[in-house]
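Feature request, filed as a ticket because there's no other form

It would be nice if the structure record came with a short human-readable summary line next to the tokens. Right now we just get the raw output. Example of a typical job, pasted below so the devs can see what we mean:
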Amino acid sequence: MFEENAVPPSLLKQLVEVNNQFGGVVERYIYQRFALRQKAIRPVYHYVKMVREAGVDQFDLTQFLSLFRAESGLRRSIDKAYELVVYALFSALLQELRVKVQVSVEPAQSRLLEEFGDFTRVVMGIDSQRPLREFQAGIYRAGVTNAADRGLDLWANFGPAVQVKHVSLSEEIAEGVAHEVRADEIVIVCKDAEEEIIRHVCEQLG
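Raw output as currently delivered:
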């Protein structure tokens, strides 16, 4: 918060002086902006509260997302709304399917496993005495802020890393995915896209 590209200490000192000089005008501005943001998200809060009280069968995804489009203050947060939806879907499926993940080492590697037992015990949860570990599959949110970057949104303890973006799949974005993402397998889910762009993505990714 106090870095040079955010609120440097020198500027913070000036804000304190102005705030004291004009009867808390800076504080008042901050609280007013906070109140406006809360007002913008209030319809979403009331809708979620209604669904929780009435039952999950009353939840309508289209209506939920429309609340973000209808409010100008929330349109820039539509990515976060889609991220929450994707997270909820992944999490619910993993829980209902009771997916398990196994980490194991072949018996032929027991000597090496014993030699590096301290490391494998801490990092992998296995050692020469317990060469197999089973645990519940899970997916986790990497962060809660709207960072204006290409950062990771979700990650799973069984491999996949997920990035959620509410954008139209263009040829430029497709090329970005092809050249900047390094993975054994890439899955792109899009609402709609031109056939030529889909073909281009497939050719780029092999």
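Something like this underneath would help us a lot:
DSSP finds nine helices and five strands in the chain.
Residues 25-54 form the longest helix (30 residues).
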